[in-house]
Amino acid sequence: MEDTLINIRRDLHRIPELGFQEEKTQAYLLEYIRNLPQEHLNIKLWRTGIIVKVTGSIGSKTIAYRTDIDGLPITEATGLPYESEHKGHMHACGHDLHMTIALGALTACAKDQPDQHIIFIFQPAEEGPGGALPLMQSGILKEWWPDEIFALHIAPELPVGTVSSRAGLLFANTSELFIDFKGKGGHAAYPHLTRDMVVAASTFVTNMQGIVARNLDPLQSAVITIGKMESGFVQNTIAETARLEGTIRTMDPDAIALVKQHIEQQASGFEISHDCEINIDYGSNYYQVFNDRDKVEVFQGALGKTSLTFKEAAPAMTGEDFGYMLKEIPGFMFWLGVDSPYGLHHSKLQPDEQALSYGVEAVLAYINQA
Ligand SMILES: CC(=O)N[C@@H](CCC[C@H](N)C(=O)O)C(=O)O
């Protein structure tokens, strides 16, 4: 099985696709699923996602397991023989491993009927614009509504054979952040005749850090990260426009609104002081990942019968639209150690593939215990 899992992971790694464009990924997953014993399986498609129900022999409850399926707009730099064939796109957040583990667990359930009904959700667009919320709102789960739900995320900093989780808050509340600046361009030698948006945007980035440092309660946590900054055309011309792209993260769902309010106030001030126009768009927003205490305890108990080691997790500023599923259905998310020298969203992320079989073991341990 280990070699099969590695081959599946490599196949999926070659074809990363962005949110709601996962056509090849969906076709690959579907072909694999249709080749499994079909006796207890029911398959539904939702946009570029797939939902599979395995009917249990007792079926007194329904357990859902969710994997995300999209890649990121990152150019891979691993140099691996199976690196991304989609230039500019990469599975840099481990969703290739997440999908493979889901297929591994589904294969076991299709071959050896579980006691309970199990739903496998292959969900698009986790990295953006978010697939979990529209999937929940679509009603596709209505007749298969789960009693509980769980998911995993790879953890590059944890050793292989380790899983980690905690009761309560695991991941942050998030909001994307897109800020457009419009001033007046002109000759580099005549700044007084222009309104320079390189200066405005770069000062804006620096000043935003003061919102976290000075406007939020120091006992709360928040992050404002600008991951992309675009402006100008040539070295000797003052830029008329600038665009910032980033994300806001907070531990408290209400703190997101406070951070946004201060960003807007700062923008109003900049419109006056830099004589420019500023437009703000918050893109997609994710609700925190909040784990059910009882389910985490059952998971820990189930791991006792496996070769995996459990480590208590700290809350993280990562975001996950799985939070919207946990808002409606009790459950949990856990980290799976993959021991990569490069972290999530890095162009050289290189998870240890030995982690795949540990992932399947952890998922099946919970399914068979719950
Ligand atoms: C686990 C992980 O890395 N998730 C992403 C979720 C992205 C949310 C959204 N696009 C944003 O940037 O706010 C993350 O970046 O944490």
Describe the protein.
The structure is a single chain. It contains nine helices and 17 strands. A hairpin with a 2-residue loop joins strand 1 and strand 2 (49-54). It is elongated. It has two domains: 2-169 and 290-369, Aminopeptidase (3-Layer(aba) Sandwich), CATH 3.40.630; 173-285, Alpha-Beta Plaits. Helix 1 packs across helix 3 (95-111), helix 5 runs antiparallel to helix 6 (255-273) and helix 7 (293-303) crosses helix 9. The longest helix has 19 residues, at 255-273. Helices cover 32% and strands 26% of the residues. The strands form four sheets. It has an eight-stranded mixed β-sheet, with helices on both faces. Strands 8, 10, 12, 13 and 14 form a five-stranded antiparallel β-sheet that branches. A two-stranded antiparallel sheet has the order 7-15. 44% of the residues are buried. It has helices at 2-14, 23-34, 95-111, 132-138, 197-214, 255-273, 293-303, 322-328, 355-369; strands spanning 41-46, 49-54, 62-68, 117-123, 148-155, 162-165, 168-171, 173-182, 186-187, 222-231, 237-238, 241-250, 277-281, 285-286, 289-291, 309-312, 331-337. With 370 residues, the protein is an alpha+beta fold. The structure holds ligand L5K734KM. The ligand CC(=O)N[C@@H](CCC[C@H](N)C(=O)O)C(=O)O binds at residues 93, 127-128, 153, 174, 176, 247, 286, 318-320, 344.
